[in-house]
């Protein structure tokens, strides 16, 4: 718990604890800086901790993320605060910063929670599980997922009926309904923005039927079904719990589409869909997998070989523009598409459709800064003021950007970008500290 009356001082504030923010925090702390790492979620790890495997190596995402996450948790130079946001960031005349830190109550004393889940078992309230992207329910007293960090319960107060069953079940008496919002000011010498991305909302393309047809799901929902912390033991279609055997992917859903406000390529969807297709071939050996695409962007090291590997495994790639999806009585789906090679309009039937949703910027980030303007680029990502010479630099001196906050990119590029941001931030901290000593 923080002492509210004392202004805490850090060298760096890192906003967002996904793979980019986590990596930046570790790099900064490893060269002796005192880092405050904040994330608005209940756990660190961002999207990566929720993924299945990673392209093009098919290494397990959790096996890469969890050692980093535990290094962050154990590092004496890093203070990590979850359910926490930074705002009202002011840059002082000497180049340092002040920020307001707001932590929402979790209603559980994290240090005392053993993660036994007895509260979860006792809780009578069922709601949609946001960490499983709505595929299953969770309780109002819940642990986000088994590899969450911290692995501690939280109470979803919006849905809680205050019945007290969790408090009675908890063997360590760590549920505390008296917790309130905590607000305090911190000082720091540099800020790293690593706020990542949001996923495109496919209800904005009503002709694909997401939200109306149960067996139309998003790629993140498929990612969860293939991940080690998956909701079911196998891949199931939502309408009837049947194992699908003819799955279609619609690439570029909400990317490269000016009509929905996302003109650029999301960079990762071709490859994550190709990855999921290969994983599905393993999980459901009898299933047919078809990817409907406009162009395949296999631009990275080993990506084209990965694409060729999927084709040799039997994944079908159809160059076709999907116009409409309709639902049959049995829950199967009819895809109407234009075959780009022949110009013919064709219909095919699948028992599940995965929309390969694109990446969207977190535009709200500009509002966090008060007396200086954090500018956005024409696509609403954090503007890189000198992208060729110093890609981590933003329009505020001392504020650096890491990962997808600056542009769509994959995990290796997010880690590289975090390396650039942390080294620029460490230089700035050194420069500011030297100036302070000289005064
Ligand atoms: C379905 C899918 C599959 C993918 N598969 C792969 C793959 O196989 N291989 C690969 O290389 N890449 C893959 N990617 C891309 C990968 O997820 C990203 O490259 C990576 O997650 C980017 O990390 P990040 O830290 O920049 O952003 P994020 O993971 O989005 O993390 C940002 C963090 O910032 C926090 N945050 C946001 N705003 C605030 C705020 N105001 N205050 C505090 N905290 C905030 C968020 O809660 C989050 O924890 C996939 C993406 C998707 C959607
Ligand atoms: S008090 Fe709230 S969280 Fe606890 S068991 Fe009852 S409904 Fe669930
Ligand atoms: S809050 Fe209590 S009952 Fe729930 S997981 Fe933590 S220790 Fe167990």
Overview of the structural elements:
α1 packs parallel to α8. The chain has a seven-stranded mixed β-sheet with strand order 16-22-17-18-19-20-21. It has a five-stranded parallel β-sheet with strand order 6-3-2-14-24, covered by helices on one side. The chain contains eight helices and 24 strands. It is 22% helix and 25% strand. It is an alpha/beta fold. The chain binds flavin-adenine dinucleotide (FAD) and iron/sulfur cluster (2 copies). One iron/sulfur cluster binds next to α3.
Topology readout:
Blueprint: E1 8-9, E2 12-15, H1 19-30, E3 35-38, E4 53-54, E5 59-60, H2 61-74, E6 78-81, E7 84-91, E8 97-103, H3 118-122, E9 126-128, E10 137-139, E11 141-142, E12 154-155, H4 165-169, E13 182-188, E14 190-193, E15 197-199, E16 216-218, H5 219-226, E17 246-253, H6 269-283, E18 288-293, H7 303-313, E19 316-327, E20 333-339, E21 345-350, E22 352-357, E23 359-361, E24 399-401, H8 411-438
Helix pairs in contact: 1-2, 1-8, 5-6, 6-7
Bound molecules: flavin-adenine dinucleotide and iron/sulfur cluster (2 copies).
Total number of beta strands:
24
Number of helices: 8
The helix fraction, in percent, is 10-25%
Strands ordered across the widest β-sheet:
16-22-17-18-19-20-21
Low-pLDDT segments? none
